[in-house]
Amino acid sequence: MPGPMHGIKIVDLSIALAGPWAGGILADQGASVIKVETPGIGDLVRWIGVSQGGISAVIQMCNRGKRSIAVNLREEEGRQIVRRLAREADVFLQNFRPGVIERLGLSYETLREENPNLIYASISGFGATGPYRDKSAYDPVVQAYAGLCDTESDLENEEPRLLNQTPADKVTALTAAQAISAALFARERGAGGQHIEIPMLEAVVNFMWADAAGNEILRDADHNQPSSFARGQKLWRYKDGYAVAAPVSDADFQAICEAHGVDGYDDPDVATMMARRVNRDAVQVVLDRVMEAAAGMSVDDAIGRMEAGKAPCGKVLSTAELHADPHVQARGILVDSEHPVAGRLRQPRPPIHFEKTPSAIGDPAPTLGQHTDELLRELGLSDDIARLREAGIVA
Asked: Quick one: average pLDDT of 362-377?
């Protein structure tokens, strides 16, 4: 059966990760997504990171199931092609800096004149207003402004750190995909088309404050704890690897201590959740003993002991090790396939399991302009394809 977004048409002018992955999530769910790219180089991330023949790992993950058309937006005839695509679309997605899309004549105000039911999603770094509206914003810039770097600061020297991935882009993509889905739902209930603005900074601040800004949210609290209740968590080092445990309940705390042969968990200062909340230094003494014991144990033995006590725990795996994990294999989380240009692929299937409208991995990510002729024919421009190519309007 088709996915829940089957029948939804999306024109995607975005580049990099945040916008393309938002469209990619909806493509996995059945939407028909047209990726509009610049002739010659296309989306810049085709060439960033691990890449093969213009198909990078990021391009594959964020653009699988889409069709690519290469259009020169510097030319009016190129912009007319995009406007024709937008006439038949349900969603228009772009992440140009504020002001650029207006200069191209592809703003919401322009496109809604011919398509009043259009859902128009604009992703930017800092939003369309405010003193930072014109700032260039890539993921590390937003990490810094939003507080992620500060939250990830080193426990020993308090030095802020960037994450070794692009969380701001990914949080924004998830936020945008949800927002587009909500706007489509509202349209079905009679709201009509609308403009959605998704600033990266605001998406990440919202993400952060769910669990990492306690003192900023509860301004009259005693502030005797870190703003992030996860602050201070450490991986546990074993003689042959690393693991993590999360002793939240009293039973968890006892089971983790017992698994490592450590007593003292019944001391009144640490025996209950409320006591552990107040007596953080006493808790740390016990956990230090657990970590000392861990250094002489194998990680698999420790995991087995903790799991026997039903304590929440996990072995640290690399992305390369995931495929061999028995649970990952049993669930079919990672899927092997072949890309005609990039070669062998291994990627996660969509994580949401719809009972009646299943999502699925679509066709391999397109090469630049792979579907240009096909899409021009669908627009009724078959007789113009050669001329448009010769004039550099499309590629």
From this structure: 98
Structure tokens at 285: 């003494």
How many other CB atoms are there within 10 angstroms of residue 287's CB atom? 21
Q: Taking the alpha carbons of 248, 143, 65, 182 in that order, is the dihedral positive or negative? A: positive
Mean pLDDT of 146-174: 93
Instruction: Give helix 200-209 / helix 167-188 axis angle, nearest 10°.
Output: 100
Mean pLDDT for 178-187 is 98
Q: Which domains does the chain have, with CATH numbers?
A: 9-208+330-390 (3.40.50.10540), 236-315 (3.30.1540.10)
Asked if pLDDT for residue 166 goes beyond 90, the answer is yes
pLDDT at 232 over 90: no
Hey, what are 364's tokens? 């391999």
Q: Look at residue 262 and give its three-state secondary structure.
A: coil
For residue 80, give both structure tokens: 């007319």
Contact, 170 vs 162, CB < 8 A? no
Buried b (16+ CB within 10 A) or exposed e, 295-325: eebebeebbebbeeeebebeeeeeeeeeeee
Q: How far is CA 124 from CA 75, 82, 100, 111, 121, in A?
A: 24, 20, 11, 19, 10
Residues annotated as part of the active site: 169
Confidence label for 155 from pLDDT (cuts 50, 70 and 90)? confident
Contact 41, 48 (CB under 8 A): no
Nearest residue to 24 via CA among 61, 52, 56, 55: 61
